[in-house]
Amino acid sequence: xxxxxxxxxxxxxxxxxxxxxxxxxxxxxxxxxxxxxxxxxxxxxxxxxxxxxxxxxxxxxxxxxxxxxxxxxxxxxxxxxxxxxxxxxxxxxxxxxxxxxxxxxxxxxxxxxxxxxxxxxxxxxxxxxxxxxxxxxxxxxxxxxxxxxxxxxxxxxxxxxxxxxxxxxxxxxxxxxxxxxxxxxxxxxxxxxxxxxxxxxxxxxxxxxxxxxxxxxxxxxxxxxxxxxxxxxxxxxxxxxxxxxxxxxxxxxxxxxxxxxxxx
Length: 264
Ligand code: SF4
Description:
The longest helix has 15 residues. It contains 7 helices and 11 strands. The chain is α/β, with parallel strands linked by helices. The site of iron/sulfur cluster has 10 residues, from loops.
């Protein structure tokens, strides 16, 4: 399979309400999604070139001024409790949704409450987080991560220039700070999206820098993906599964951290 140009222009729909799915996770099966960001509108601290929701029109880490659009912790916990007590089958509940979940001011409290409910109602269900790592500057967010079964944190770049080109962060976000915060977290899963074309993190320099950062962060494991659906920057190229496998094998050998490639 060679590289191909993404030509279809349909994006994923933004989520409606607090819960969505269950959606099929490539690795863990049915996952009930929790959206802590606004209804049908993206609020994120990144504007990733490959984001399957399209461009981030409200790109910020300060979500306080959008508080009226965010669900309350009470509403989120009640919704998850109802789902846990229902007969709907799912293996995971995942904090994800229309942007960055850790930006919600009550994210740590919600994690604590939902983990407790999970323990009571369905102890076999795992609690996961998909985060872009920008909320880790808050100590309360870092402190609550060990309570999650699957704390999955994004890192797409090993150096600032690649980071700025790939993730196009909100103004106050610094790459070096994210790396330091990831290092402090320890037992996390890093998730990386690789793309090629005018923006690329698979060419030798950026890839080498990325391996160095992974070796320093020492996550539990690293999950590698490429794009598998339309994205806003239509000139982006998918990294084919065979190349992703090679990167995973090289990365595991060089960093000593298990890297796994997931192809669509
Ligand atoms: S962090 Fe996630 S939601 Fe935010 S722009 Fe990137 S891919 Fe989209």
